[in-house]
Amino acid sequence: MSDNTILEFSSLSLEYRVRGRAPHRVLDDVGFSLPRGEILALVGESGSGKSTLARAVTGTLAPNARISSGSVRLDGRELVGLAAKQYERLRGSTIGYVPQDALLGLNPLIPVGRQAEEPLRVHTRLDRGARRRRILELFERVGLRRVEQVYDSYPHELSGGMCQRVLIAAAIAADPELIVADEPTTALDVTVQKRILDLLVELTRAEGLSVLLVTHDLGVAAERAQRIVVLQNGRLVEHGSAAEIVSAPAEAYTRRLIASSHLGRTAVDVARSRRAFADAPRARAAQEQPGEAPVVLAEGLRKTFPNRAGEPVVALDDVSVSVGRGRTLGIVGESGSGKTTLMRTLAGLAKPDAGSASIHGEPVEYGARGARGRRGLYRRLQIVYQNPFAALNPRHTVETILEEPLTGFRLGNRGERRRRVAELLDLTGLPAGVASRYTAELSGGQRQRIAIARALAVRPEVLICDEPVSALDVTVQRQILDLLAELQRELDLTYLFISHDLGVISEISDEILVLQHGAVVESGTALDVLRQPRTDYVRELLAAIPQPDLPGIVRDPALP
Question: Residue 494 and residue 123: Cα distance in Å, rounded?
């Protein structure tokens, strides 16, 4: 291990052991190194071993994980076999860790500011006041607003993106030498993602910090990392400089990852080449009949929530929505813009203070009196939630999870339900054997596909997708988007698609609605909004899309 190397993997092999089953190898003879002061990105599909490799560094492997051979050295120190108390002294001080899922990374019973202070309390001599000042400063650096209020808030009072930023602030609080970031910007909108990645780059340059970045976003990897390691099924496929990997990939697998991403294509290019409606007769017919009644209609929606001081905070401010049969409305905006509140209002889960909503001309009903009406609504409308960890019952098998909506609506007999489960697994690219497994045995991407399959179970007419592909790697993301497009063509499904990823929004949307602080700042066809944005806010969203400056990658000339 050279003096210039902070982290080194040598022939590392790791397996998981489950009682009654043969050991499952998830890392197989992996070896590479991370130079000091650099960012190295681990890229690969779900199940490739990226997160397991990260956990091998932080000492947070599952109890049934066993390193069968090889070595992990941090600054020359062997980590394999390190005692738990020794790891506790490293985590927070030498190693900062940003987990993939913000809700699992924070204690719901403790204010987030106190949780972010923990590395300072354990590893420094700062008093409570100094610790608070340091955390408030870091909250501002990672892009949080009203930091005093955030400090005293509980995780459930913050958005997913805000919780993720809290975790990043905690990870850098005690000035570690190495940050292990497991999909740290997956839940964040593009502008905050840019701010966080800018911060990581700044820290590597100014303080010599090294970053092991786990990501499924090749655009982020190509733009921000000096080196890229590509993993497939636990094996190292290739590694090298970002320019080498992205511009001249040596392996077919890497070329497939690049082909599944938006590298080299602008958002306008993607919108122009949208396949979902290129040859769809029904879509053309819908466009030619502007007088046809919309499937989803909302007018003048307004919704406020009280803050901790009891003062009203506007979540929706006079928002109107109209979506035709077989069409997709992409809803985009930063965390706290009102996207999820709009989704919940349209689904009957949050009663607006003013305005109205209807699905197929039937008013959306709210409250206890509307429960029976909402049962009929949910036969026609289903939701794919952002967080599969919270949406799926960990005590049920996948088969039981997918059968639940069919049983609830009394659809089919036992045999028919089992056949539908098999069909759903096939539709979402999962092997039949997954049916007998529990969600804890699946990767994050696999869990999200199960959530999508469950939403499709009752064959709804309207699908509200709340960040449905944000946790998926690019190849699985491509499969899911292709699947949604195919289902839409065949069944005339209507989609409301919420995302912070303008690349995804441009690909799947016919129209785009942009929200900021609860208000609509722009709306129109996807091409018009992306090609000729009228507001600085939308131009900022476009400018935050990763645009790597590497050979063979064409930058969008419309962006800075």
Answer: 53
Tell me the C-alpha distance between 450 and 456, whole Å. 10
Look-up: residue for tokens 């090294």?
A: 210
DSSP collapsed to 3 states, 456-493:
HCCCCCEEEEECCCCCCCHHHHHHHHHHHHHHHHHHCC
8 Å CB contact between 54 and 241: no
Question: Using CA atoms, how far apart are residues 494 and 295, in angstroms rounded to an integer?
Answer: 7
Residue by residue, pLDDT tens for the chain (560 residues) are 667 899 999 999 999 887 777 888 899 999 999 999 999 999 988 778 998 999 999 998 989 999 999 999 999 999 999 988 898 889 889 999 988 777 778 999 999 999 999 999 999 999 999 999 999 999 998 888 899 999 999 998 887 778 888 998 999 999 899 999 988 877 677 777 787 788 888 888 877 889 999 988 888 888 899 999 999 999 999 999 998 998 889 999 998 888 777 665 555 555 555 433 443 434 444 444 556 789 999 999 999 998 777 888 899 999 999 999 999 999 998 877 899 899 999 999 999 999 999 998 889 988 766 566 677 788 889 998 877 777 888 899 999 999 999 998 889 899 999 999 999 998 888 899 999 999 888 876 788 889 888 998 998 899 999 888 876 777 777 877 887 888 788 778 899 999 877 778 888 899 999 999 999 999 999 888 988 899 999 888 888 777 676 555 544 444 44
Torsions phi, psi for 395 (to 5 deg): -90, -5
With 0.85 as the threshold, say if the pTM is over it.
Answer: no
Cβ count near 97 (within 10 Å): 25
Give the DSSP H/E element, type plus range, for residue 520: strand 519-525
| Residue carrying the six token digits 């599969």 | 388
Q: Distance between CA atoms of 344 and 362, rounded to whole angstroms?
A: 17
Beta bridge partners of 369: none
How far is it, in rounded angstroms, from Cα 513 to Cα 523? 4
Residue 126, classed as helix, strand or coil, is coil
**Lateral strand order in the sheet of 210-214:** 95-98, 178-182, 210-214, 39-43, 227-232, 235-241
